[in-house]
Amino acid sequence: MLSNLSVNLEQNSYQIAIAPNVLSEIGNYLKSLNVGNKILVVSNAMIFDEYGETLINAIQAANFSVSHHILPAGERHKTLLSIQKLYDQALENHLERSSTFIALGGGVIGDMTGFAAATWLRGVNVIQIPTSLLAMVDASIGGKTGVNHPQGKNLIGAFHQPKLVLIDPQVLKTLPHREFRAGMAEVIKYGVIWDADLFQQLEAAERLDELEYLSVELLQNILTHSCQAKADVVSKDEKEGGLRAILNYGHTVGHAIESLTGYSLVNHGEAVAIGMSVAGKIAVKMGYWSEVESQRQDQLIIKTGLPTTVPPMLEIDDILETLKSDKKVKAGKVRFVLPQQIGSATVTDQVTPDIISAVIKTCQEKS
């Protein structure tokens, strides 16, 4: 089963290929892209142990020169120090402007590799091979790259579109259950903001909390619909000048929760799930959508095994303060993505601190 999707941009358009065993086919893709001979594969130890040999062998079989660099796993390592080590590896292997970085891993690896590619020699090629559901449907597509600052997530970054995104659904078999559920948060996001049909498919599924309960067809539909949604939005707005901001649904409060808990208590998908629940309730309070739709969203989040409540140890004032440093702040006002109906959302800067506080308090009381 093969899905080929296109991200159509004014410049640097690219393909998303979704197919089993696509890692072993990378040599053909590299030849068709007409990139330089030198390749640097970036991964973490666990992922590289699983898939590194297959990827390296396929690259070498296509007569490309390949080296690799292992970065530590985890959001807390998504720093400029890690990028410096990646630069050192690129220098040691004499990577040139025609060379290619390949990100083999989840969203953290994809973000760091993309940022290194965007800034090494003022920009070299990057190919994304995501190995987590979250990275497959979100982080690998759209060209957002970056690292964290101690004061906030992804405050340092650049837009740098990949040359190609290769997605092999079979690698999800080794993904921990918690990480699979984290990816489902982004899938639900697409259903709420863009694709009502996807949302209904998720509602109709018997279970969504573990990969083994998904049919091959449903998994393919989830990947294809989610990637298509991201591709549609990015094609219309490459650098978040307008429409693309809706992709941040759930991320405003979600990023604040991640930052305040030191990227250790909840993972990204869990934080986004909580953020969507908060944003949904804000949307109800402000008359953007109905209580029924908000409940449908929360029921789907819970069905996926994800949280909807704000960690009780967090102070509301601390959350509000952290929101001020969010990337989406404009003219001092925090911009929230709020749903209008299942499959449609808008961006507003009219959400007051009082509304945010009241909703967060409600979400903490339920925990």
TrEMBL record:
Q: What is its EC number?
A: 4.2.3.4
Report the SUPFAM superfamilies cross-referenced here: Dehydroquinate synthase-like (SSF56796)
Record Gene3D superfamilies: 3.40.50.1970, Dehydroquinate synthase-like - alpha domain
Tell me where in or outside the cell this protein is found. Cytoplasm
* Reaction equations catalysed: 7-phospho-2-dehydro-3-deoxy-D-arabino-heptonate = 3-dehydroquinate + phosphate
User: Which parts of the sequence bind Zn(2+)?
Assistant: 186, 251, 268
Which CDD domains does the UniProt entry name for this protein? DHQS (cd08195)
- In this chain the 3-dehydroquinate synthase C-terminal domain maps to 183-329
* Cofactor note (record): Binds 1 divalent metal cation per subunit. Can use either Co(2+) or Zn(2+).
**Known InterPro entries for this protein?**
Dehydroquinate_synthase (IPR050071), DHQ_synth_AroB (IPR016037), DHQ_synth_fam (IPR030963), DHQS/DOIS_N (IPR030960), DHQS_C (IPR056179)
- Predominant place of localization: cytoplasm
Instruction: Tell me a GO biological process for this protein.
Output: aromatic amino acid family biosynthetic process
Q: Which residues bind NAD(+)?
A: 107-111, 131-132, 144, 153
NCBIfam families from the UniProt entry: aroB
The job of this chain, per UniProt, is described as: Catalyzes the conversion of 3-deoxy-D-arabino-heptulosonate 7-phosphate (DAHP) to dehydroquinate (DHQ).
The name of this protein is: 3-dehydroquinate synthase
Give the lineage. Answer: Bacteria, Bacillati, Cyanobacteriota, Cyanophyceae, Nodosilineales
Gene from which the chain derives: aroB
